Amino acid sequence: MDTQVGVAHPRQRTRCQTRPVPDFLVRKAYTATYDRPEHLTLASLGKSPVAPASEDEAGDRSRSTFTEDESLPTMFRAKLQDYFKSGYDRGHMVPAADAKISQEAMNETFLLSNIAPQVGVGFNRHYWAYVEDWCRRLTKSFSDVYVFTIPLYLPHKDPDGKWRVNYEVIGSPPNIAVPTHFAKVVLVSRPSSPSTPDILEVSTGAFVLPNAIIHDDASLESFVTPVDTVERAAGLTLFSDDLKHASKHICKTTKCEVIVRRFDEAQKRPEVRRTVSAPR
């Protein structure tokens, strides 16, 4: 099963140069192959040369529409019809709010290759949206921010004691697998001190959330998962071992907290509209 990975560049402050690396395993009686992304290393970290957009050319999500990605072969392409009456939101992997640099960048986040089925109320429209906002706000404390969004299909233990993976497939004919969970994996860096701008303090962390309703007061730290565990579940190598060993946990260098404010509920109650806002 292919794994869809969204790598966000919040405010165009970061770059990510991971590329597929084919591994050919030549055995006596057979040859096997699999692809993995080239992982991030300490040497590969650096600021993006892309400057922030001016207000005149900033992307406007109201002008974007969900679109099938015609760059993919038809047989592997998600279709708009697949989501019709599916009961799931078309959830962005790289958030639209991370692509305000231009209308073209914004439109690209609405390609269905950047979309996965997500539970709407209680997840995509609420807790998950605020996790995305927390990731964006990391740019206020760190010079470089990398955010990986990874759909996962995780096993659960059945009453008979055996572990199984069960997930829904939407579309007619069935075409899109519904992830059981989503991971946010972050890597941030900043100069260790003003006098040593070339020596980076690096922090990493991973959070795995179920694709389900999450209570508003759930602690973000309750979803902390080792990066290695996410890599193993996804079949990916995101960071080099040296980078992992050199990094601190993100929750040790910044506050891992999500405060959900029900913007949709405020719309129904005019008296609180001025005090409640959705993440931008």
Tell me what the structure shows.
The chain is α+β, with helices and mostly antiparallel strands and 280 residues long. It is globular, with a radius of gyration of 20 Å. It has a five-stranded mixed β-sheet with strand order 1-6-11-12-13. A two-stranded antiparallel ribbon has the order 2-3. Strands 4-5 form a two-stranded antiparallel ribbon. A hairpin with a 4-residue loop joins β2 and β3. It contains seven helices and 13 strands.
Element pattern in H and E: EEEEHEHHEEEEEEEHHEHH
Uncertain ranges: 9-17, 271-277
Strand order of the largest sheet: 1-6-11-12-13
User: What is the helical fraction, as a range of percent?
Assistant: 10-25%
Tally of separate helices: 7
The secondary structure category is: alpha+beta
Strand content: 25-35%
Secondary structure: elements and pairs:
Elements: E1 6-8, E2 20-26, E3 31-37, E4 89-92, H1 103-108, E5 115-118, H2 120-124, H3 127-137, E6 144-152, E7 156-157, E8 163-164, E9 169-170, E10 176-177, E11 181-193, E12 196-210, H4 227-234, H5 241-246, E13 248-249, H6 250-253, H7 263-268
Parallel strand pairs: 12-13
Antiparallel strand pairs: 1-6, 2-3, 4-5, 6-11, 7-8, 9-10, 11-12
What's the short story on this structure?
This protein has 280 residues and is of the alpha+beta class. Helices cover 16% and strands 26% of the residues.
